[in-house]
Specification:
Helix content is 49%, strand content 14%. By secondary structure, it is α+β, with helices and mostly antiparallel strands.
Length: 128
């Protein structure tokens, strides 16, 4: 969710927050004019598809879906995907690794005013 919120180069922290709030809803309405269908959010449905068995109706037939992980090729090349893969390879996905991450980051807080433009954050990061 956070990756997709920042992937489009948002102009402000408010834009990131608005995108995340929109994506948090598990369902949304879409369809032709005057008629809407209920759809699951792709982020949550992709996660659920990878974790859970489900019994669904499709074209008047009922069938079981089963867990499977789909990693689109476009994700494999992204910096967040490579970072997570490296963290897992370093053992940070284990119980001890997660405890170590928690110890380091538990007290870390980021507080940015709503009107901060993303270019200001990037510029200040480049000069330190």
């Amino acid at each position: 969710m956070y990756y997709t919120a920042t992937d489009g180069n948002p102009a402000s922290i408010r834009e990131v927050r608005d995108h995340i709030d929109f994506q948090r809803a598990s369902l949304f309405l879409d369809g032709p004019n005057g008629f809407d269908w209920v759809f699951p959010r792709s982020i949550t449905s992709a996660r659920d598809d990878a974790l859970y068995v489900d019994y669904v109706e499709l074209d008047d037939q009922f069938l079981w879906t089963y867990p499977h992980v789909r990693w689109p090729d476009k994700w494999r090349a992204t910096a967040p995907f490579r970072l997570v893969r490296a963290l897992l390879s370093a053992g940070l996905g284990t119980a001890k690794g997660l405890e170590a991450v928690n110890d380091v980051w538990a007290s870390f807080r980021v507080e940015l005013p709503e009107e901060v433009h993303m270019s200001v954050i990037t510029s200040s990061r480049d000069t330190t």
